[in-house]
Amino acid sequence: MGILDRVSRLVRANVNDLVDRAEDPEKMIDQILRDMQTNISTARSQVASMIAQEKELEADLKETSNLSTEWGEKARRAVTAGKDDLAREALRRKRDNDENAAVYEQTYQSQKQTVEKLKQQLGLLESKYQTTMSQRDSLIARQRRAKATTQVAEFTSTLSPLDAGAELDRMERKIRTNESQAEALTEMGTDSFDAQFRELDYDVDIETELEALKGGSSSVSGEIGAGSASTTGTAESSTQSGTGSTPRK
């Protein structure tokens, strides 16, 4: 196989592939119906034209047959009148019309058969058109259903169960992380409140002690003085008792 043949086959293959991909069944069905309408219109025109020709041939046949009959009658009248030359001319014209009538008859019969065939073809084409029209909605519905099924299948094939499970696990981990962060923030808020209340309690103790110091400063001084005097007296008595007990030399 030559290189040109291979290139030509490759080009045809690519073109056919592009055409197959570009074909939309719904649009193609509508185009087929339009083509059928065009063909039906053309066929009707052809049938009408052929019928007109048939009628013309039929009229010519009748006219020629009538002329043949008339010239035959004239030939008999000429013979009756004893005019043989006139009778011969009438017979010649009668023969000419008979020959023409035979040609018209043959052509008329052929035309009539052709018209019948065209009428049958036109009837089949119209019947096929009606059948296609009745099937159009069903075919389009089937095409749309097949297209939708294909799209769903393609989308489903891109998402495997393992991928979905992994995504769900990842989302669950993320949710747990968010929950942990929320709990941590809540605990931090609680600790902050407890610390503030402890500070308030601490300040209350300080204030109480401060008020006690301010309000009871004299009693505290007396207590301090009494304590000092008691201590001095105790020391003196101890000295005296010690002195008395010491023997003199």
Fold and architecture overview:
The longest helix has 75 residues, at 84-158. This protein has two domains: 22-149; 169-215. It is rod-shaped. It has helices at 3-22, 25-80, 84-158, 161-215, 217-244. It is built from five helices and no strands. The model is unreliable at 218-249 (pLDDT under 50).
Describe how the helices and strands are arranged:
Elements: H1 3-22, H2 25-80, H3 84-158, H4 161-215, H5 217-244
Helix pairs in contact: 2-3
| Straight-line distance between termini | 158 Å
Tell me the radius of gyration. 65 Å
Main beta sheet strand tally, sense and closure? none
- Helix and strand pattern: HHHHH
Class computed from helices, strands and strand pairing: mainly alpha
Give the number of helices. 5
Mean pLDDT: 75
Low-confidence stretches: 218-249
Helix content: over 70%
Shape: rod-shaped
The total beta strand count reads 0
Strand content: under 5%
Count of folded domains? 2
